[in-house]
Amino acid sequence: MFVQQRVYIFWNILQIIKCVHGNTCKPTNNLDIVFVVDGSGSVTADGFLATKQFMSRFVDLFEIGPLKTQIGVMVFSDNFYIPIDLNTFSSASDLKDAIFKITYPGGSTSTTKALTALGDVMLTSSRGKRSNVIPIAILITDGESDTSPVNAATRLKENGVVIYVAMVNMHDPTGDMQQVVSKPEYLMYVQNYNSLANLVGPLSVSTCDVAQGCLTTTCQNGGTCHQGQTTYRCECPSLFTGWYCDICRCGNMGSCSIDGDRWKCSCYPGYTDETCSTNIDECASSPCIHGTCFDRLNGYTCRCQPGYTGNHCETDIDECNPKPCVHGTCHDHVNAYSCKCNAGYIGIRCEIEINECESSPCQNGGTCIDKVNMFECVCSDEYYKPHCETNICQPIMTDVIFLLDSSVSQSPDQFTRQLNFVTQFIDHVIVGAENFQFAVVTFSFEAKVEIELAEFNNNVSLKEAVRNIPFRYSLKLYICI
């Protein structure tokens, strides 16, 4: 069984009352206690919350009321405010609720201003101070004041105020706090704000008449209280420690619970072993398929290898989405892709059209026009396509008439083929008054002259006119001779 023994540090509160009044502390000797709380920026919101928790537990040890113990609170930083007067509350529950509603101001540390206001403003009858009760100030601070508070503290002590200091961070660089307290032993140090809880144990004295006895609430969680003359000790169950056997050895990673006739630790997610002190390694099962696992509290994260994604790096990233190949087909690889280009294109992304004119395929002064996966030669009058390599036929003046069937026996596609034949024929001759002249007649139900001889005197305009001849079909067929 774990045994925790402490001397009542705050037994000194009773002793100073005896010292000042020259009489023995009796149940009728009530207390006016003021907490003077540092709310500067160095405290932090978490530290301020720990201070409020400390004060709340302190209140639990006293009978609160106008004929019993009164507790008030002052908060200071670069200024001060009084959220709770001495006579504001007559019950511990209301007082504790008010303590937790106190707001954290932040700012600099003006302890001098706070102690001055303690005497001038707080410890007055309008704030609930009783004339027949010794006032006690408990200063809780973590830093050096912007000015020395010694003179302000001296005036308070001369007026009968008993001053205690709870110094956080165990550091008093100027030594001022040793002069602020009423006695050297009234200066107490704790390592951090969470350690303020260690000072609640000595506050087991709720009133003078129980100062030397165990309170009914002293030892918690099945602990046994053993009384001494000025000390007590709690004999704690195996999983508990602390002043009142109130600290579970499962720490912050679990909670103590009863299993039959014994205590056990119920571990929070992510922890294991008898006292919940071992972090479970969620990476032990190698959950990251294509990546590196990083263990977290009750979980893990995966850092994926390039090319993979997903909670477990199980998904191959599709580098083909969105389509990177401009003119081609994309093939996905691990952290890469490749493009198979369509005919006429090259480049990593098939973004470059091949210039088929680069090899100068057009002969005899022809002009090359680049197209997708092909080219076209615009030839001079003397040559014709595809590469302008063939001389155009140049007979003496000739008139040519094309008779095109546009009857119902022809489909639109067949009629278009007739037109294409005519334009190809024109490509191989020179059109003009001194060379070839062409006429075009279509026939079906009736004959129609589409192009007259000598109507066009150059190849380009004649070909355009031929391509624009419409398809007119009829059920009757006439032969024009």
TrEMBL record:
| Keyword Glycoprotein on entry | yes
Q: Kindly list the cysteine pairs connected by disulfide bridges.
A: 236-245, 283-293, 304-313, 320-330, 341-350, 379-388
Q: Name one GO molecular function term.
A: calcium ion binding
Domain EGF-like: start-end pairs:
210-246, 279-314, 316-351, 353-389
* Pfam assignment, any one: hEGF
Q: Which UniProt keywords apply?
A: Disulfide bond, EGF-like domain, Glycoprotein, Repeat, Signal
Q: Which residues form the VWFA domain?
A: 32-203, 399-481
Entry keyword annotation includes Cell division:
no
Instruction: Name it.
Output: Uncharacterized protein
